[in-house]
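Problem: given the chain below (153 residues), write out its structure.
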Amino acid sequence: MNYNIIYENNMNYEIDIENNDLSTALIGDEIFSSIIEYTHCVGETIIYDKENINESDVDWEKIFSFTNNYTGYEIGCNEFSIPIDKVENVSVYLLALDFLKRLKNKFSDVEFVIYFLINNEKLEIRYHVFRENEEFWIHDFNKIEYPFLCIKG
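Solution.
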């Protein structure tokens, strides 16, 4: 799998254990399976959606008045928070790669940007499709004050 680390600031929130790969896969199954299951295409976007909305259900004009672009819409739909104690025995970096791999298994021709941020004892996860004509969700990575990882792949 091809990926690039776009930004990382002190994301070493991990505990070394012998079976980190197995632990990462098991925790990844628990956290990511339902996210991947309910992630699908809606028009030009890929979003998490349990309602199975269609593009005709989306008022793009109204959405763009709030978000300016598809990336903003996706970030609003694709935001998750997990208690940090659920992932305290695995490498957050390996967990992020596991999530990216799962997204790529479902959407092989799509390049994603994923964000992992540790804040207030929670792991916050967000993702969007990478588009050349749109910016990353975070405009200034250097202003992030929490452990943060951004990967594109």
